[in-house]
Design goal:
Largest sheet: 6 strands, antiparallel
Order of helices and strands: HHEEEEEE
Radius of gyration: 15 Å
Strand order of the largest sheet: 1-2-6-5-4-3
Structural class: alpha+beta
Shape: globular
Number of helices: 2
C-alpha cells in the first residue's frame, strides 16, 4: 500500500512540475464526448470488437463499450482514436 502512495505522489509531483493533468502523466485514458455524435480517447490499448452498433475499446485497466447507431472509427493511432455516429450509451467495465 505504501508503494502506491509513493507512486501517486511522484505522479502528482511530475504533473505539478510540468503543469499537466495528473491523469495525463499517469497514462490513464482521457475521454471526450462531444454531444452524442463524436467520441475521442487517448491512451487506449486497441479495439477489441467493432460493429456499427457497438465498439469495445481496451483501456488497459478497463474496457470501454460504446453503443449507438452507424458507429464509425474515423481515426486511430497508437494511443488515440476517434469515433463518430449516433452514440446512445457508454459503459465502463472493470
Amino acid at each position: 500500500m505504501e508503494f502506491f502512495k509513493k507512486e501517486i505522489n511522484v505522479i502528482n509531483g511530475a504533473a505539478e512540475l510540468f503543469d499537466l493533468p495528473p491523469d495525463l502523466v499517469a497514462g490513464l485514458p482521457h475521454i471526450e464526448l462531444v454531444g452524442d455524435s463524436h467520441f475521442y480517447m487517448e491512451h487506449h490499448r486497441g479495439i477489441l470488437s467493432y460493429s456499427g452498433e457497438e465498439i469495445d475499446i481496451n483501456g488497459e485497466k478497463c474496457l470501454l463499450r460504446i453503443f449507438g447507431e452507424n458507429l464509425e472509427l474515423t481515426n486511430m493511432t497508437g494511443d488515440q482514436l476517434r469515433i463518430r455516429g449516433k452514440i446512445s450509451r457508454l459503459e465502463w467495465v472493470k
